[in-house]
């Protein structure tokens, strides 16, 4: 089972990725994790990555694809893998295809932008413990105070409305075109593409995804 999970920030990709990976015993692969692991490993590729990152430059698609090829050779990928947050752009998707990196299924989780903004902008965090609250869905007992310590909760910069709108704009411009790209791949018979409505509970969303995946 080789899966790509698509969706804007805030649709619940991370939660569904964990559910899917646990169910099918496959690893969740993100570019951030791959970059950090390669630097830790100290391989030739890792040294190249470190040099680029130390200068503050962006890691090229070519290096990312090399990392992906290296990562999926590992034993834990024998049953498959799930790409979370990758590919982000058409050139990355085209490079995956050119390198014959197999994908069985692409799942897109859709949620209306107003709901995404509500989900993300409502989050508050207790920094020292990492506890996360939501002002509507999971509010603290006392406004803006951690339940256990009474310490103040903060809104992360990423969760501020202006930042969320900018992230969604980047997603629309860079990543949303992948929907058309992979729908075309489905028409060619290369893979299976499924769009699911993410405006439901995490459990119910997973049940819908599972029904789809078990038919493959």
Number of domains: 1
DSSP helix count? 9
Shape: globular
Largest sheet: 5 strands, parallel
What is the N-to-C succession of helices and strands?
Answer: EHEHHHEHEHEEHHEH
Rg calculated over all Cα atoms: 19 Å
How would you characterize the overall build of this protein?
Helix content is 47%, strand content 13%. It has helices at 13-24, 31-41, 44-54, 61-71, 90-98, 113-121, 161-175, 177-187, 202-214, and strands at residues 2-6, 28-29, 81-84, 105-110, 123-125, 132-134, 192-197. A five-stranded parallel sheet has the order 2-3-1-4-7, with helices on both faces.
Helix and strand layout, with pairings?
Blueprint: E1 2-6, H1 13-24, E2 28-29, H2 31-41, H3 44-54, H4 61-71, E3 81-84, H5 90-98, E4 105-110, H6 113-121, E5 123-125, E6 132-134, H7 161-175, H8 177-187, E7 192-197, H9 202-214
Parallel strand pairs: 1-3, 1-4, 2-3, 4-7
Antiparallel strand pairs: 5-6
Helix pairs in contact: 1-9, 2-3, 2-4, 6-7
Defining key terms:
216 residues; alpha/beta; 9 helices; globular
Describe the structure concisely.
The protein is of the alpha/beta class and 216 residues long. Helices cover 47% and strands 13% of the residues. Strand 5 (123-125) and strand 6 form a beta hairpin.
């Amino acid at each position: 089972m080789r899966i790509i999970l698509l969706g804007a920030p805030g649709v619940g990709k991370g939660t569904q990725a964990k559910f899917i990976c646990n169910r099918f015993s496959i690893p969740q692969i993100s570019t951030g994790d791959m970059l950090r692991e390669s630097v830790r490993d100290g391989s030739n590729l890792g040294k190249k990555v470190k040099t680029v990152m130390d200068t503050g430059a962006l890691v090229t698609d070519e290096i990312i694809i090399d990392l992906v090829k290296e990562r999926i050779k590992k034993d834990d990928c024998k049953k498959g893998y799930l790409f979370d947050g990758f590919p982000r752009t058409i050139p990355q998707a085209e490079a995956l295809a050119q390198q014959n990196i197999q994908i069985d299924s692409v799942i897109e989780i859709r949620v209306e932008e107003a709901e995404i903004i509500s989900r993300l902008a409502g989050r508050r965090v207790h920094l020292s413990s990492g506890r996360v609250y939501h002002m509507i869905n999971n509010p603290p007992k006392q406004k803006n105070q951690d339940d256990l310590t009474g310490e103040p909760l903060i809104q992360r910069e990423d969760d501020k409305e202006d930042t969320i709108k900018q992230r969604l704009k980047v997603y629309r411009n860079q990543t949303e075109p992948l929907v058309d790209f992979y729908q075309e791949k489905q028409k060619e018979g290369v893979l299976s593409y499924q769009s699911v409505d993410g405006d439901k509970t995490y459990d119910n969303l997973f049940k819908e995804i599972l029904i789809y995946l078990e038919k493959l």
